[in-house]
C-alpha cells in the first residue's frame, strides 16, 4: 500500500488545482486571539473618489454649458449680473479650497497615526474640562472654518466626545495662532483682540456643554460615528500613501458642500446690496444684526476677516465688529452646508441658532453698557 501510495504523492499537481487551493484558503494567517486588519484589502478609497467624480461629471458639463451660454447669448443686464456672480463665486471658492485641502490632509494624518488611546490620554472625562479643552484645541489643529469640518468628522470617528467636537468645531477657526496674529496685525493688542478670543471660547464652550445632554446617535450622522480602521501593514511610505488617499476622499466629499455654499454666498452677494445692510449700522441692535448677517453672507475666511472688519470701524459700533469677528468664523453659508456632512439637519439648525443668539446678546450688551 505504501509503495502504491508514494507515486501518487510524488505526482505533479495540476496548475488549476493549485489555483483552486489558493483561492479557498485564507489570504492572511494570524495567531489565535490577534485581530486581523483587513483595511487595505477591503477598503478601496480610490473607488470612492472615482464614484464621486463620475457622479458629478454630468453636472459639471451642464454647468460649463450654462456658463458659456449666459456669457455669450444672454441680455446685457443678465450677463453683467452673471459675471458678477461668477467672479464672487470663484473668489470665495479659490480662497477656501486651500484651507479645505489642509484640513483634509490633517484628517488623513489623524486617521492613520492617531488611535483612541492616544486621543483619550489628553481629553478629560468630565464635561466641563472636556468642553474647555475642545474650545482651545485649535492651537493643536490650526484650521479655519473650511478645514475644521473634515478634521472634526475624523475625530468623531475616533471616538471624540460630542461636546469636545462641537466646541472645537466652533472655536478652532478663531482660537488658533494664525488668526491670533492676523487679528493683532489689524487691531493691535486691545479690546477687539482679547474680546474676540474670550467671547469665542465662551460661546463654543457653552454650546459644547449644551450638547452633552444629547447622545451621539441623535446628533451625528451614522457614517460619522462609524469608526474605520485604516492601519497600513507596510512601512512609512505605505502610511503616507494611505494619508493621501484618505485626504482625497475627505476633500471630494466635503468639496461638494463647499461648492454649493460658495454658490449660495455668491448669489446672495449678487442680489442683496451691501449698502442695504450697511444702512442699518447706526443703532446698537441693528448694527449687530447687520454685521452678523454680513458675516454669514460674505463667508470670508477667518485668517483674513480681521482686515475686512477694520474697514468698518468708523461706520459700525464695537459690539457689532466683535459680533462679526466671533460669529462669522463659527457659522457662514459654506460652513453651514459642510456641517450637513457630519451632523443631522436639526443639529445643524442648533449649531447656527445658538452661536447667533449668543453673539447677538453679547454684541448688544457691549454696545449698551461698555464704552469701547
Q: What does this 3D model show about the protein?
A:
By secondary structure, this protein is mainly alpha-helical. The chain starts with a helix and ends with a helix. It has helices at 2-10, 15-24, 39-42, 45-73, 76-113, 116-122, 127-136, 148-157, 162-171, 177-187, 191-210, 216-219, 222-225, 236-271, 274-278, 286-298, 305-310, 318-330, 333-339, 345-369. The chain has 20 helices and no strands. It has one domain (76-369). The longest helix is centred in the first third of the chain and has 38 residues, at 76-113. The chain is 73% helix and 0% strand.
Properties at a glance:
mainly alpha; single chain; disordered N terminus; 372 residues; globular; 20 helices
In a few lines, what is going on in this structure?
The protein is mainly α and 372 residues long. The chain has helices at residues 2-10, 15-24, 39-42, 45-73, 76-113, 116-122, 127-136, 148-157, 162-171, 177-187, 191-210, 216-219, 222-225, 236-271, 274-278, 286-298, 305-310, 318-330, 333-339, 345-369. It has one domain.
Amino acid at each position: 500500500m505504501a509503495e502504491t501510495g508514494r507515486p501518487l504523492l510524488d505526482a505533479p499537481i495540476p496548475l488549476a488545482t493549485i489555483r483552486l487551493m489558493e483561492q479557498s484558503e485564507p489570504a492572511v494567517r494570524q495567531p489565535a486571539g490577534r485581530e486581523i486588519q483587513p483595511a487595505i484589502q477591503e477598503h478601496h478609497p480610490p473607488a470612492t473618489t472615482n464614484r464621486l467624480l463620475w457622479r458629478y461629471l454630468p453636472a459639471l458639463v451642464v454647468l460649463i454649458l450654462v456658463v458659456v451660454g449666459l456669457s455669450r447669448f444672454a441680455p446685457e443686464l443678465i450677463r453683467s449680473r452673471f459675471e458678477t456672480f461668477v467672479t464672487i463665486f470663484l473668489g470665495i471658492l479659490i480662497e477656501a479650497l486651500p484651507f479645505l485641502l489642509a484640513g483634509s490632509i490633517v484628517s488623513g494624518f489623524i486617521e492613520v497615526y492617531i488611535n483612541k488611546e492616544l486621543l483619550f490620554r489628553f481629553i478629560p472625562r468630565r464635561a466641563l474640562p472636556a468642553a474647555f479643552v475642545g474650545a482651545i484645541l485649535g492651537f493643536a489643529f490650526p484650521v479655519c472654518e473650511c478645514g475644521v469640518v473634515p478634521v472634526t468628522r475624523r475625530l468623531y470617528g475616533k471616538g471624540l466626545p460630542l461636546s469636545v467636537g462641537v466646541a472645537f468645531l466652533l472655536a478652532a477657526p478663531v482660537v488658533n495662532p494664525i488668526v491670533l496674529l492676523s487679528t493683532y496685525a489689524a487691531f493691535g493688542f486691545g479690546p477687539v483682540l482679547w474680546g474676540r478670543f474670550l467671547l469665542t471660547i465662551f460661546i463654543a464652550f457653552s454650546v459644547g456643554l449644551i450638547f452633552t445632554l444629547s447622545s451621539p446617535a441623535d446628533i451625528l450622522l451614522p457614517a460619522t460615528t462609524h469608526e474605520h480602521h485604516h492601519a497600513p501593514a507596510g512601512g512609512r511610505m505605505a502610511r503616507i500613501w494611505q494619508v493621501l488617499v484618505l485626504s482625497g476622499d475627505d476633500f471630494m466629499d466635503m468639496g461638494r458642500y463647499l461648492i454649493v455654499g460658495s454658490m449660495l454666498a455668491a448669489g446672495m452677494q449678487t442680489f442683496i446690496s451691501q449698502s442695504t445692510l450697511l444702512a442699518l449700522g447706526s443703532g446698537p441692535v441693528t448694527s449687530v444684526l447687520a454685521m452678523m448677517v454680513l458675516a454669514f453672507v460674505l463667508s470670508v475666511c477667518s485668517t483674513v476677516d480681521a482686515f475686512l472688519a477694520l474697514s468698518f470701524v468708523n461706520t459700525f459700533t464695537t459690539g457689532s465688529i466683535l459680533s462679526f469677528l466671533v460669529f462669522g468664523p463659527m457659522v457662514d453659508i459654506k460652513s453651514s452646508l459642510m456641517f450637513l456632512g457630519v451632523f443631522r439637519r436639526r443639529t445643524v439648525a442648533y449649531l447656527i441658532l445658538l452661536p447667533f443668539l449668543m453673539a447677538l446678546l453679547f454684541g448688544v450688551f457691549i454696545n449698551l453698557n461698555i464704552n469701547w
